[in-house]
């Protein structure tokens, strides 16, 4: 039994989640992967083909699509919101840039439960447009799902294509991520892991996006809404660890994943989190240039480009309620073990032991 298996089985025993799946590996695939627990507390055991609500891990995947559009000249990082969205012209968000939306430096507040008072898509989008800025643009990192909602609208307006189709065409299809979708169909919903017993919906949520603002938007947003499987997230992690050439040119990915906010309190890249020096969800061992993202439902993807390594963690820590805080320490412990595992594997490849031989074979495949 691996150390990660023990850690994540203990998370279930502590009722942090009913189930967890993980993969730690490199550009050629996993070094350690597995799953433990069940799709809900009274549901079937995980089987590795389970469908997970990625929550805010949607943001960097949508961000990859936006960067692909920028690379193709469909939009520019310093283009303004008003350029693409006529309804925003003359308002306080007209001059916000795509870059500011990607780095959460737009000044648009986040974590605003607009769904409570705006129950239709049109009403909620109008509320986003009218939401007052709470910081001068470019002066503060202020995590904003509402900013990413606008980012998705910009991408759609720039191309004339729906966001879900852009993500499929520019990110999922090139990597063969066939189970990474907005609005899962009946077959995928049947494999979905339960999230919250939602007070607003008055039922257990399974196979429907957990984020309530995304529900009102119809299940598709640049901030939340994607579902995926362990195998698909491994594909993404391995592709990014290899340099992302199937998605973006090397220079574009380097720009996307470099820190853009080091003069401010939190380290942000373009749609990615950087590793903050204190209290990073990636723990203490991943390299200083590593990047990734977490999701409210208990998901995360982290990549260390220098070591060419990735770590995927998928849990349903909001099941049956979102109040638990156990995922915070567990996630850091997971990443520290994962980072040490990949360092050890790299060292083994230069040795003569059996483990080194296996890892070396995979690296040379």
- What is the total number of structural domains? 1
Note the gap between the termini.
26 Å
Shape: globular
Task: Write the CATH architecture name.
Answer: 3-Layer(aba) Sandwich
DSSP strand content? 5-15%
Low-confidence stretches: 349-365
> Mean pLDDT across all residues, rounded?
93
Q: According to CATH, what is the class?
A: Alpha Beta
CATH topology: Beta-lactamase
Category by helix and strand content: alpha+beta
Number of strands: 11
H/E order of the elements?
HEEEHHHHHHEHEEHEHHEEEEHH
Strand order of the largest sheet: 2-1-11-10-9-8
The helicity comes to 25-40%
Count of helical regions: 13
Q: Over all CA atoms, what is the radius of gyration?
A: 20 Å
Give the CATH superfamily: DD-peptidase/beta-lactamase superfamily
Question: Which key terms come to mind for this protein?
Answer:
alpha+beta; six-stranded antiparallel sheet; 15% strand; Diverse_Enzym_Activities; disordered C terminus; Beta-lactam-related; Beta-lactam/transpept-like; Beta-lactamase; Beta-lactamase family protein
List the helices and strands and how they pair.
Elements: H1 3-13, E1 19-26, E2 29-37, E3 52-53, H2 58-72, H3 81-84, H4 98-102, H5 121-130, H6 145-159, H7 163-175, E4 181-182, H8 186-189, E5 194-198, E6 203-206, H9 212-216, E7 226-228, H10 230-241, H11 250-257, E8 273-274, E9 291-295, E10 299-304, E11 309-315, H12 326-349, H13 354-363
Antiparallel strand pairs: 1-2, 1-11, 3-7, 4-7, 5-6, 8-9, 9-10, 10-11
Helix pairs in contact: 1-12, 2-6, 2-7, 12-13
